[in-house]
């Protein structure tokens, strides 16, 4: 069975600080996808990124960047110069390529609650 | 943009009632999902459907059933609501494969008294 661990339950930083959210995963699949989703206070989860297990290049999108390290089974998410609007719960997720049924399908971590203080 | 709409944002029901949670998506997605979100437990998959009239159990299907009579609509049914089903329920959809990104609704906060 696969597993996603987000060890940080809650992180609080002051605006403009950089912050990294950790995600560690376990899977027996050789091909898989990793995701990050953001859940603002409004409740609707919003897709941020999907990364193929074959592609270990880091990705940057504005103030957001993702570091995928297959050797340590980690897919960490960094927000540079954080803003109050970044306050949300962030979920890391893992799916075998092609998906799968039941418990072997998409697996979410428990989420990290990020609080950005003005 | 894909829109996933859940019929109610907040719902209060009594123990033993039959509860219907409705979800509609407007972009012809094949896959639809129902998740439950609880503090400290994250998101847990209840059921998903990959086609009309098709369904598969997720991680926690007990106490729930689903219906997908039309492609755009996926209903979650609590046959006899219990207090331990008080939770946030999230509906999601994906285009064709389960490993594609999910589009989520805003959620229904269900309280069972």
Write structural notes for this entry.
The complex is a heterodimer of chains A (118) and B (113). By secondary structure, chain A is mostly beta strands. Helix content of chain A is 0%, strand content 52%. Chain A contains no helices and twelve strands. Chain A has strands at 3-5, 10-14, 19-21, 24-26, 32-39, 46-52, 59-61, 64-69, 74-79, 88-96, 107-108, 112-117. In chain A, the strands form three sheets. In chain A, strands 2, 5, 6, 10, 11 and 12 form a six-stranded mixed sheet that branches. In chain A, a hairpin with a 4-residue loop joins strand 8 (64-69) and strand 9. Chain A is globular and about 45 Å long. In chain A, 32% of the residues are buried. Chain B is mainly β. In chain B, 0% of the residues lie in helices and 57% in strands. Chain B contains no helices and eleven strands. In chain B, strands 2, 4, 5, 6, 9, 10 and 11 form a seven-stranded mixed sheet that branches. Chain B has a four-stranded antiparallel sheet with strand order 1-3-8-7, with no helix packed on it. Chain B starts with a strand and ends with a strand. The model of chain B has no long low-confidence stretch (mean pLDDT 93). Chain A binds chain B through residues 9, 32-33, 35, 37, 42-47, 50, 91, 95-103, 105-106, 108-111, and chain B through 40-43, 45, 48, 56-59, 88, 90, 92, 97-107.
Essential attributes:
heterodimer, A: 118 residues, mainly beta, 6-stranded mixed sheet, globular, B: 113 residues, 7-stranded mixed sheet, 4-stranded antiparallel sheet
